[in-house]
Amino acid sequence: MKVNGVNLGNWLVLEKWMSPGLFEGTDAADEYWLPRSLTKEVYEARIQIHRSEYITERDFVTIRSWGMDTIRIPVPYFIFGDREPFFGCINELDQAFNWAEKYGLKILIDLHTAPEGQNGFDNGGISGVCKWAQNPQEVEFVLTVLERLAKRYGTRSGLWGIEVLNEPATEAIWEFMNVQKRYPPKDEAMGKGSCGIPISFIKQFYREAYKRIRAFMPEEKHVVFHDAFDLSGWKEFFEHENFQNIVLDTHQYLMMAEMMGCGQNLNEYLDYIQTHFANEIEKVQAYVPVICGEWCLFNSLACGWDTKGGQTVLNGLEGSDKELKSAEEKKEIYQAVAKAQLTAWNKGSGHFYWSYKLLTDTVNTSGWSGWDSWDLGRCVDFGWFPVKSKI
């Protein structure tokens, strides 16, 4: 069965651009610095309110009503509440499993962050810092988090699988993304020594993580490895390993295609989706199941201006304070890229949209016009994204 799912981004792992109000009154750009910019009481209140209101039981009903079957839930390394000053969120994940099982949904637990950063992106928890792989104690800590997750949920009927680590950045992607320019570290001393992670390290970490997880999680559940931004580079690895029920996760965005040189027009988008997304997935699917764990409809053409690979006002771009495309033009663009991308993902084993919702005010906040396509709810309501009701 092909997975048809969505991410609950910005619920248990925060991203400032997706919920700017949480960061109001601070200069924090990411989740690491938020609790260090507020009093403990204010931070705790904000986080508790956010977690209780951002995702509720009703959202699981909505997701099911769209005909979706699986939810990818990003979780932080401090999920068990053992890393001050953060507050754990294991109770929220427990609730999610109860809701999922009630409404016939499955969950992919995605370990989305690592201490000291596994990519230096804002969504990795700390901007501009990528030193986790250099610290054996923190590597071991992450492995224990995976063990505890597998032990707690491994036999739950609602579990689809566990993804061992989101988007570890290799040396190549670290250089290509120019990470510390795009996501400057708040503390230069902390950022010093950051670099991409050798692929050999990532592969060894995956081997060990698989072993630790499988000790508690039966083989009918999936273990998911992110492709570290190199979808076609894993054939030999899988040929030499004796894994059971492994899935390779690739994240494919049109904004990244633009960074790779794809022209910002509909014909070039559709050609790129076919020649790069679909063809590559089909090749890799021949030797390991592939899911597109993150994708969306966002593109510069529909925004009406060059977003420089999806950069925002938070990255220093001014953007546009008004819609530059008509509703009809946007609908035509989004419907076309939705159809093409869904066809591409179905060359593999399915997909998860990023993301379920967005709390950025794209109407009243200068520079955010065009970013509404990251919000699947809006995409469904505007008729940009096709759904098949199943309730």
From TrEMBL:
InterPro entries assigned to the protein according to its UniProt record, in alphabetical order: GH, Glyco_hydro_5, Glycosyl_hydrolase_5
Domain Glycoside hydrolase family, first and last residues per copy: 53-298
Pfam family for this entry, one: Cellulase
GO cellular component, one term: extracellular region
Gene3D superfamilies: Glycosidases
Topology with respect to the bilayer: Single-pass type II membrane protein
Lineage top rank: taxon: Bacteria
GO MF annotation terms: beta-glucosidase activity
UniProt KW keywords: Cell membrane, Cell wall biogenesis/degradation, Glycoprotein, Glycosidase, Hydrolase, Membrane, Signal-anchor, Transmembrane, Transmembrane helix
Signal peptide location: none
GO biological process entries: cell wall organization; glucan catabolic process
Compartment(s) of residence: Cell membrane
Family recorded in the similarity comment: Belongs to the glycosyl hydrolase 5 (cellulase A) family.
Function description: Glucosidase involved in the degradation of cellulosic biomass. Active on lichenan.
PANTHER family membership: GLUCAN 1,3-BETA-GLUCOSIDASE 2, GLUCAN ENDO-1,6-BETA-GLUCOSIDASE B
Protein name: Exo-1,3-beta-glucanase D
Organism: Lacrimispora xylanisolvens
